[in-house]
Design brief:
Elements lengths: L14 H17 E7 L9 E6 L6 H7 L6 E6 L6 H9 L2 E4 L8 H17 L3 E4 L17 H13 L5 E10 L7 E7 L3 E2 L1 H9 L1 H17 L11 H10 L8 H21 L1 H21 L13 H22 L3 H14 L6 H28 L1 H37 L5 H15 L2
Length: about 450
């Protein structure tokens, strides 16, 4: 990741933003297993940029975008979190701007005008701004109706400062494999930039029509760089097909994204032209889904059976031998990992906040916990041991995490051994094979 760890400290950014940026890039680096940013070369240079981004996760979406740029990113956030004076100054120092909603019980047009003026100024000076045109977050992989705010801000900037200002709306699709838990994948996909200057002359003549036209163009460009499941009625089954089947064991994020969109097109065609076969396919998906959930296994195990019984036993013995070492190393990182998970999953009701809060709280707690461990070691065991611990702590965390992943796979292998003895196993295999044959996956 660009400027990871040190480079950004030498940039002309204010100190609070540098602190926030360090937390963001550290959290993103450790939270996601694979992170890919496609099409960044499309982003125009020396111009005002509005990033129009789909909104699946409350805080995680702006975090993953901000961690990939060489420029400070300005955010629009709901105004109620700015009420405290100290919080207001803190949020403004990290380039966050308040946006008022009708539910806030104020004159939104009047209150938001100051924010819009700030946005115009930022864009005039070739600044970068993130807007989520859907207006709110939803974890479903479906692009919802876009608000016209992104178009109003873009065209409002040219109205105030003139049409010769270089200004673009750049769509970015965020595609998470699973943003609720760590060790998943995320793909950032940059779409075709929209030159706002091409719309301004028409906007002066027919503002209402051009606002709609520009918003429709933003939607078209954004929809092309994300997974857009239109079928609400069968959403769960379609999502399951796209994300729980092996897709020819593809692991490269760009190819996986292409395969999923291709599969989605097949499903849409099937529903439109062969509805009975579409219904039969979904019935088989439900059979597979029910069986793997009941037996706590992954669908790919129905295609690729795990290790033999003998190898599973040997692997289990090795894991038991290594367990004491794992537990010893776990003392260096268990609390800062587990506390955010426990707090977020028990205290935060909206799951779309989970990933971002786990990431942010985890980074802060790890810094504090490891600092205290090093300080304790330095005081009681000497400088050399304390300095050595600085290098060993990340290694311990990686080893613990690898052990945990292997334990999950081992547990899945044992679950599979039990599942093959179940009465419904053959039905699940038959349903799985039907799906693969029908869709070619």
């Amino acid at each position: 990741m660009r400027d990871f760890w040190l480079g950004y400290w030498f940039k002309n950014w204010n100190f609070p933003y540098k602190i926030g940026y360090s937390i963001v890039i550290t959290g993103s680096r450790t939270y996601f297993k694979n992170f890919k940013y496609l099409g960044k070369e499309k982003i125009p240079k020396n111009a005002g940029i509005i990033y129009a981004v789909n909104h699946q996760n409350a805080f995680l979406d702006p975090i993953v975008i901000a961690g990939q740029t060489n420029n400070p990113i300005n955010f629009l956030a709901r105004a109620d979190i700015f009420k405290n004076k100290f919080v207001y100054k803190l949020l403004r120092s990290v380039y966050m701007l308040p946006i008022y909603r009708q539910r806030d019980g104020v004159d939104t047009i009047e209150k938001n005008q100051k924010t819009f003026e700030d946005c115009y100024e930022i864009l005039k000076n070739n600044g970068h701004l993130i807007i989520f045109p859907e207006g709110n977050h939803n974890s479903k992989k479906k692009l919802r109706t876009l608000k016209k705010g992104v178009s109003r801000i873009a065209l409002g900037t040219l109205s105030k400062y003139g049409k010769d200002i270089p200004l673009y709306i750049v769509p970015i699709g965020i595609d998470y494999d699973n943003h609720f838990n760590m060790n998943s994948d995320v793909l950032l996909n940059v779409g075709e930039p929209i030159n706002i200057n091409n719309y301004f002359d028409e906007y002066v003549k027919t503002p209402v029509e051009i606002l709609k036209k520009l918003t429709d163009q933003v939607r078209e460009n954004l929809e092309s760089v994300l997974i857009h499941i239109k079928d609400d009625e069968n959403y769960d089954e379609i999502y399951y097909l796209l994300h729980r089947f092996s897709l020819n064991n593809e692991t490269e994020l760009e190819k996986k994204f292409t395969l999923r969109n291709s599969l989605l097109s097949k499903l849409e065609w099937l529903k439109e032209n062969e509805f009975r076969n579409f219904e039969k396919l979904l019935e088989n998906v439900k059979v597979v889904r029910s069986f793997v959930k009941e037996n706590k296994i992954r669908p790919y195990l129905l295609k690729n059976s795990p290790l033999s019984f003998f190898k599973i036993v040997v692997f289990s013995l090795i894991m038991m031998i290594v367990l004491p070492l794992h537990l010893i190393l776990l003392t260096t990182n268990y609390l800062p990992y587990k506390i955010p998970v426990w707090f977020v999953e028990n205290k935060i009701k909206d799951r779309t906040f989970h990933g971002s809060l786990k990431q942010a709280i985890g980074v802060i707690l790890f810094i504090i916990y490891w600092f205290l461990l090093v300080l304790f070691t330095y005081i009681f065991f000497g400088k050399e041991i304390g300095l050595l611990l600085i290098f060993l702590l990340p290694i311990c965390a990686i080893l613990n995490f690898k052990y945990w992943i292997l334990m999950i796979k081992l547990k899945g292998a044992w679950s599979y051994r039990r599942a093959i003895k179940k009465e419904k196993f053959n039905s699940a295999i038959k349903a799985f094979n039907y799906i693969n044959k029908k869709l070619g996956i």
